[in-house]
Design a protein that fits this description.
Elements: H1 2-155, H2 158-161
């Protein structure tokens, strides 16, 4: 029996050594498990943070897409507005060209009128000169007639003096 007890003690020592190894192994695995839980928690936190960032980026991307769409619409509106204004400018340029042509014609007509007025003034001046010349001659002829009548009256016989010839002028 002593051997059997020794054997039991040996087995017990072996079990204790094995138990100690298992406890060390369990402790190591528990520490590893805690470490892995911590890593897992850190990873979950990082994943949640990254997920939150991704969601924010997705929201920002949607906002940017909306902004891009709004800018594109504004750009299209500006292009249409620019096209309308270019058309208006073309019409205005055509109207300006017509006005320039009309002004050119008006300038020609004004020049022609000025030339005609100058010609008429010249003719009027010539006519006035002729009229004054004729008036002067008429006055002169009338004086000569009066002098001739006076000298005729003086030179005629007294009986003819009674007959007076009326002046025609």
């Amino acid at each position: 029996m002593a051997m059997a007890v020794e054997k039991v003690y040996e087995e017990l020592d072996e079990v204790k050594v094995e138990n100690k190894k298992l406890r060390v192994d369990l402790k190591s695995k528990a520490e590893l498990r805690e470490h892995l839980k911590k890593i897992q928690n850190d990873m979950l936190t990082k994943i949640q943070e990254e997920s939150s960032k991704t969601e924010k980026q997705a929201e920002q991307l949607l906002e940017k897409e909306e902004q891009i769409s709004a800018v594109k619409q504004a750009n299209e509106d500006l292009k249409r507005n620019l096209c309308d204004r270019e058309t208006t400018i073309m019409h205005l340029n055509a109207a300006i060209d017509k006005m320039r042509d009309a002004k050119s014609q008006l300038d020609c007509l004004n020049l022609q009128r000025e030339n005609e007025v100058a010609t008429l003034r010249h003719l009027l001046g010539t006519k006035e000169s002729l009229y004054k010349e004729m008036e002067y001659r008429a006055v002169k002829l009338e004086k000569e007639n009066e002098e001739l009548l006076s000298s005729l009256k003086n030179s005629r016989k007294p009986e003819f003096r009674k007959l007076e010839v009326p002046l025609l002028f």
